[in-house]
Amino acid sequence: MSSRDEILASIRKNTLQKFDYPTWKVNAVKYPDLVKQFISISAAVGGEAVELPEGMDVNEYILKRYPNMNAIASNMPEITCATMNPDDVEVAQDLNGTDLAVVKGEIGVAENGCVWIPQTVKHKIIYFIAERLVILLEKKNLVNNMAEAYAKIEQMPKYNFATFISGPSKTADIEQTLVKGAHGAMEALVILI
Fold this sequence. Notes:
Elements (H helix, E strand, L loop, with lengths): L2 H12 L19 H11 L3 E4 L6 H8 L6 E2 L26 E5 L2 E3 L4 E5 L7 H4 L2 E6 L4 E2 L2 H9 L7 E4 L4 E2 L7 E2 L6 E6 L1
Parallel strand pairs: 1-11, 2-3, 3-6, 4-7, 6-11
Antiparallel strand pairs: 4-5, 5-8, 9-10
């Protein structure tokens, strides 16, 4: 038995009164317009969210928005503007130098502008090593708050890795100076489709 197991067994043995786990109703915030709220909060956290213009191809939009990208990575078949498939790379380090990664988000949260991204690529580093990150998210997958997001996640298949991303990577830990791109993308754009 490990030290941890011994400590937990001792606590269980010496607990005189046990209580059932409480049940409560979550009264989380709800928004009248999820798209408007998500776009607003995304801007507030340093990122950007836009609705794909009606009738415009997402590839056309990406190329218009980022005309000078040499290394565009995506494993999504519909992203024809990609210059490489990150799943074709043997070692994750070879993704260094990726100018732009286009990935699929599964759930967007209006209260904080974050997007839940499960690992659907061979090397999860692509979410963090690319200089710029474009996340495609269906508008129907927007939820009000994190409680709703976690409820949806519980109903989805299990993944080896998933993360919430909200705007570009940023930190202000060092001398209280805001630095973008410290440990992830310097720019993050969510395209609502």
